[in-house]
Amino acid sequence: MTIDNISHRKKFLAQDNAYLPHIAVIEKIIEETPDTLTFHFNFKDEKLKQEFTFESGQFGEYSVFGVGEATFCISSSPTRRQHLEFAVKRVGKVTNALHRLGVGAEIGFRGPFGNGFPLDKLKGKNLVFVAGGIGLAPLRSLIWNVIDNRKDYGKIDIVYGARSSADLCFKYDLEQWAKDESLKMTTTIDRDDGQWKGKTGFVPQVLEQAAPSAKDAVAVVCGPPVMIRFTFPVLEKLGFTPEQMLTTLEKKMKCGIGKCGRCNIGDIYVCRDGPVFSYAQIKDFISSEY
Amino acid sequence: MENSNQSKLIAEAKARLQKGKVQRVIGFAQGSLRFVTTPLITSDVDELEKLVINPFIANNLSNYLVGLEGKTAITAKGCDSRSIVSLIQDNKIKREDVVILGIPCTGIIDLAKIEKLTGRDRDEIEDINREGDKVTVNIGEDKKEFAAKEVLYDNCLHCDVPTPEEYDVLIGSPVNPKPEAEEVKLKELKEKLPEERWRFWQEEFSRCIRCYACRNVCPSCFCQRCFVEESQPQWLAPAPHWQDNLLFQVVRSIHLAGRCTDCGECERACPVNIPLRSLTREMYDIVDDLFDCQAGSDKDTPPLMTAYEDEEAEGLFL
Amino acid sequence: MSIIKKIAKKDLGKLLDEWSRDFTVFSPSKASGIARMEVWQGGEASFLDWYRNTVIPPKDIVLPLLEEMFSFSKSEEGYKLETPPADDSKRLIFGIRPCDARALSIIDMTYGDGYQDNYYMQRRNNTLLVGLGCTNPYDSCFCTALGGNPHDTTTMDVMLTDIGDGLLAEAVSQTGKELLQKTAELKAATEEDRTKAENVKQAAEKKISRNIETEGIAEKLRACFEDKEFWQQTAAKCVGCGICTLLCPTCYCFDISDEKTEDGGVRVRSLDSCSFSVYTKMPMENPRSEKWQRVRNRVCHKYEYYPMLFDTIACTGCGRCIRLCPVNWDITQTLNSLPG
Amino acid sequence: MEQSKDWEPRIVGFLCKWCSYAGADLAGISRKKYPANIRIIRVPCSGRVDPLFILKALRLGFDGVLVSGCHPGDCHYQSGNYRARRRFAVTKKMLESMGVDPRRVQASWVSASEGGKFVEVVNKLINDIKEIGPNELFSDGKQQPVKTDS
Question: Does A259 touch chain B (CB under 8 A)?
Answer without folding.
Answer: no
